[in-house]
Design goal:
mainly alpha
């Protein structure tokens, strides 16, 4: 299968039914990040953990926006 760069790198405005999904993801990630902050010592590992949570949310958001599709439809 061929990766669909046009689809991936095109702006995908949020659809009404997806807005709640984005909100749920952000809220869950924030709660997890707060738990990390409260239960781990400050330092590089804590910072890296928060960064990875942020990356996970961004990737999940992309999954919603792209409707799970990365490859060209055949």
């Amino acid at each position: 299968m061929e990766i669909d760069l046009e689809h991936i790198f095109t702006h995908h405005a949020p659809e009404k039914e997806d807005i709640e999904k984005y909100t749920k993801l952000r809220n869950a990630a924030k709660e997890f990040a707060e738990t990390i902050i409260k239960n781990t010592p400050k330092g590089a590992d804590q910072t890296a953990t928060i960064r990875k949570i942020r990356e996970a949310v961004m990737t999940a958001n992309a999954s919603i926006a792209l409707k799970g599709r990365l490859n060209k439809e055949t």
